[in-house]
Amino acid sequence: MSSSAVASKRLFHEYRTLTNDPPEGITAGPVNEDDLFLWEALIQGPEGTPFEGGLFPAELKFPKDYPLAPPKMKFTCDIWHPNVYPSGDVCISILHPPGDDPNHYEHASERWSPIQSVEKILISVMSMLAEPNDESPANVDAARMWRERRSEYEKIVRENVRKGLGL
Amino acid sequence: MPEQSLNIPQLLAVLLITFFAIRWYISPSTTTHSSNSSARQRRGPRPEQIEQIAQMFPQLDRRSIGWDLARNGGNVGATTERILGRGLDVPPLNFQLPAVSTASPSTSSTPSSRHNPAASQPKHPDLITRYNLGSKVNAPVEEKEDISAGKKPAWSGDKAKRQAELQKRKEEMILKARQKMLERVEKERKGEGS
């Protein structure tokens, strides 16, 4: 009970910060304030990448012991990216708790800790869109295409961007 | 005779094994398999049910809803409770929604994303459909000049106002992005033409 109260308080605070001072290209907040543990975010595709101009909705599910444990993030749109599972689940080091990486791909400093925040996650995901991490792909097909057939990869990404905006 | 006394248990064992082998061979094809597939056909999720839940929880993916309904035999109440409780599971990749043309009643100006049976990726409705912005798409976005200038979204002390403000910000963001993309598409088309 108390840990969930701590989490609610922190999430509410982060919501306020993000509302008053939103980072460029990011809008995020609880789907419904009655449940602070489920958020929706809209992330703009970074400029100079095939994701440019796109808007990508994602949901964030926070655990009751947030910020000790990281949230889970999932894109709720079609997104073709080496670090996003076909289900939409995002695989990025900041969403992994420290000590959770048996392969030691990631430095502890890149991973989740209570000093991180929703804002930092969303910004990291934005830069992940621009620069996929090839080391441990979540979508193997997308990763292979990104490596070997870049123009085809970019074409799919651009198509998804337009479809996502209903064009 | 030692040879014969050895042979009888061996014979028995062979008979026993054959018996079980035949039984195992026959039973899965007659009982479990057929009842399984008929149950699935009978009680698969109906599109109306998925639609009903998707309207209550627009943030959810229709495939996840369909998957949950498929598993609980099309029980809308149970799925709703699960969503409110611990949330839905991610459906397996090979799970397909029943093929229907999900023509959304509210928005007619945009083609809703169709379910492509060949694609292994889940299909999501576009943002215009999801946010019900069909009616606002063609209206000019009010004065986009001050995209960067001022107009800081202030935090409201009132919960309902905050909620409405957030919704408005998201809608504006979507409409602006669409507008920009539309301009870009047209520019490209012109560039190709000339």
Automatic annotation (TrEMBL), chain A:
<keyword id="KW-0833">Ubl conjugation pathway</keyword>
<keyword id="KW-0067">ATP-binding</keyword>
<dbReference type="InterPro" id="IPR000608">
    <property type="entry name" value="UBC"/>
</dbReference>
<keyword id="KW-0808">Transferase</keyword>
<keyword id="KW-0882">Thioester bond</keyword>
<dbReference type="GO" id="GO:0005524">
    <property type="term" value="F:ATP binding"/>
</dbReference>
<comment type="similarity">
    <text>Belongs to the ubiquitin-conjugating enzyme family.</text>
</comment>
<keyword id="KW-0547">Nucleotide-binding</keyword>
<dbReference type="Pfam" id="PF00179">
    <property type="entry name" value="UQ_con"/>
</dbReference>
<dbReference type="InterPro" id="IPR023313">
    <property type="entry name" value="UBQ-conjugating_AS"/>
</dbReference>
<dbReference type="GO" id="GO:0036503">
    <property type="term" value="P:ERAD pathway"/>
</dbReference>
<protein>
    <recommendedName>
        <fullName>Ubiquitin-conjugating enzyme E2 2</fullName>
        <ecNumber>2.3.2.23</ecNumber>
    </recommendedName>
</protein>
<dbReference type="GO" id="GO:0061631">
    <property type="term" value="F:ubiquitin conjugating enzyme activity"/>
</dbReference>
<dbReference type="InterPro" id="IPR016135">
    <property type="entry name" value="UBQ-conjugating_enzyme/RWD"/>
</dbReference>
<dbReference type="InterPro" id="IPR050113">
    <property type="entry name" value="Ub_conjugating_enzyme"/>
</dbReference>
<feature type="active site" description="Glycyl thioester intermediate">
    <location>
        <position position="91"/>
    </location>
</feature>
<feature type="domain" description="UBC core">
    <location>
        <begin position="6"/>
        <end position="166"/>
    </location>
</feature>
TrEMBL record, chain B:
<dbReference type="GO" id="GO:0043130">
    <property type="term" value="F:ubiquitin binding"/>
</dbReference>
<comment type="similarity">
    <text>Belongs to the CUE1 family.</text>
</comment>
<dbReference type="GO" id="GO:0005789">
    <property type="term" value="C:endoplasmic reticulum membrane"/>
</dbReference>
<keyword id="KW-0833">Ubl conjugation pathway</keyword>
<keyword id="KW-0812">Transmembrane</keyword>
<keyword id="KW-0472">Membrane</keyword>
<keyword id="KW-1133">Transmembrane helix</keyword>
<keyword id="KW-0256">Endoplasmic reticulum</keyword>
<feature type="domain" description="CUE">
    <location>
        <begin position="45"/>
        <end position="88"/>
    </location>
</feature>
<dbReference type="Pfam" id="PF02845">
    <property type="entry name" value="CUE"/>
</dbReference>
<feature type="region of interest" description="Disordered">
    <location>
        <begin position="96"/>
        <end position="166"/>
    </location>
</feature>
<dbReference type="InterPro" id="IPR003892">
    <property type="entry name" value="CUE"/>
</dbReference>
<feature type="compositionally biased region" description="Low complexity">
    <location>
        <begin position="98"/>
        <end position="113"/>
    </location>
</feature>
<dbReference type="InterPro" id="IPR009060">
    <property type="entry name" value="UBA-like_sf"/>
</dbReference>
<feature type="transmembrane region" description="Helical">
    <location>
        <begin position="6"/>
        <end position="26"/>
    </location>
</feature>
<protein>
    <recommendedName>
        <fullName>Coupling of ubiquitin conjugation to ER degradation protein 1</fullName>
    </recommendedName>
</protein>
